[in-house]
Amino acid sequence: MLNSTTPSIAERETAATLGVVSGEAIIGAHIFRDIFAGITNIIGGRAGGYEKALREARDIALQEMNDEARRLGADAVVGVDLDYESLGPDGGMLMVTAAGTAVKLR
Fold first, then answer.
1. Which of 71, 75, 90, 91 has its CA at 20 to 30 Å from residue 11's CA atom?
2. What is the pLDDT of residues 70-81, one digit of tens each?
3. Which family is this sequence assigned to (predicted)?
């Protein structure tokens, strides 16, 4: 499945617009990752645990979006937008949403 943040796929004509598709992933922030991220924030550097968790959540959200597009018979999803949020009373959950327009290409 082709994904693009642009409104079309270069050098491919859109034959049909099939509709909006989306995928979501919500993951819990593990307590040890929180502790190590806190240490990293104090001494500087990157919070690798959070980066890995966000990558995993992004991949899940994109896969769910692509699965929905496939069910519609799409060849691609254009105008893809990724949104990242923290949820819960203490921000202990991470949510990634992927959304775009499923299209059939010529």
1. 71
2. 999 999 999 999
3. Belongs to the UPF0145 family.
Q: What angle do CA 93, 99, 103 make, to 5 degrees?
A: 160
Number of Cβ within a 10 Å radius of residue 41? 10
pLDDT (0 to 100) of residue 47: 61
The token pair at 75 is 């060849």
Pairwise CA distance, residues 52 & 1, whole Å: 23
pLDDT of 19-69, one tens digit each? 999 999 998 766 445 555 565 555 556 666 677 778 989 999 999 999 999
**Phi/psi of residue 49, nearest 5 degrees:** -60, -45
- Reported in sequence order, the residue ranges of 1-106 that DSSP labels E, i.e. its strands, are 2-3, 14-28, 76-87, 93-105
Distance of CA 2 to CAs 29, 53, 75, 82, 92, Å?
Answer: 30, 24, 7, 15, 32
Residue 87 bridge partners (DSSP): 93
